[in-house]
Every structure is written in structure tokens, then in C-alpha cells.
């Protein structure tokens, strides 16, 4: 894929893709016309980079992880995620009580708002498998 296609599919700017490429995070090959061609797995690599950036890792740390093919699983990170889910479970129980007797349109609005968040959670879970 050319850089423009990668940018369009990933939602990451071409400038950021250039930066990641120059930092050694993204592999590419040159076409006969001297275009950079990225493999299809570059989209997964970009997703991993975004997840690692959200964990406040530096580009050097991310490069080490990406190049080594490692996933940064630490006890602290796992404990933090578990604590967050426990807190969310408690909030869900409270919301279920509040929505139990709510009018149908309120339930629909809440469902629509939560659906977009579920996409992000599903993407995160997919990265862990």
C-alpha cells in the first residue's frame, strides 16, 4: 500500500507515518517507480503504536517493542486494567438501576452512546489476542 492509502485506512496522517518510518517503526519496500510500499500488516503495527503511545511510552521504547516483536505485558499494567474494569463494573450496575425504569428513547440514546465506546474496547481486546 502507498502511504496515502495507509493514512486513509488507519486515520494516521502521512506526516506521522513518515515520522514512524524514519524512526524505524514501519517497514516498507520501494516500487519500481520509487514509491514506498507498506505491507498490509502496517495497519496492525500502527494500532500497536497508538496503544503504546497511550501508555506514555517513548518512540525509543516503542521501537524496541515493535522490533523485538514483544508485547509489553507487565504486572502493573495488568493490575491497572483489572482495577479499571472493576470500577466500570460498579458503574454499570448503577447505570442498570437508573435505566431500568427509563423511557425507551432514553435507553436508545444511552445504547447509541455506548456503542461507539464498545468499538474501542473491541479493538483493544483484538490486540491482546
TrEMBL record:
SMART domains: HTH_MERR. Residues 1-68 form the HTH merR-type domain. PROSITE patterns: HTH_MERR_2. It comes from the Bacteria. InterPro entries: DNA-bd_dom_put_sf (IPR009061), MerR-type_HTH_dom (IPR000551), MerR_fam (IPR047057). The keyword DNA-binding applies. Pfam families: MerR_1. Keywords: DNA-binding. This is MerR family transcriptional regulator. It comes from Metaplanococcus flavidus.
Amino acid at each position: 500500500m502507498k502511504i496515502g492509502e495507509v493514512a486513509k485506512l488507519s486515520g494516521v496522517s502521512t506526516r506521522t507515518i513518515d515520522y514512524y518510518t524514519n524512526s524505524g517503526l514501519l517497514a516498507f519496500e520501494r516500487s519500481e517507480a520509487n514509491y514506498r510500499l507498506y505491507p498490509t500488516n502496517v495497519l496492525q503495527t500502527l494500532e500497536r503504536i497508538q496503544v503504546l503511545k497511550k501508555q506514555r511510552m517513548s518512540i525509543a521504547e516503542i521501537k524496541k517493542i515493535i522490533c523485538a516483536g514483544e508485547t509489553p505485558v507487565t504486572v502493573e499494567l495488568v493490575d491497572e486494567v483489572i482495577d479499571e474494569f472493576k470500577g466500570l463494573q460498579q458503574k454499570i450496575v448503577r447505570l442498570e438501576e437508573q435505566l431500568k425504569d427509563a423511557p425507551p428513547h432514553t435507553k436508545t440514546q444511552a445504547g447509541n452512546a455506548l456503542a461507539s465506546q464498545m468499538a474501542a474496547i473491541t479493538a483493544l481486546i483484538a490486540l491482546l489476542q
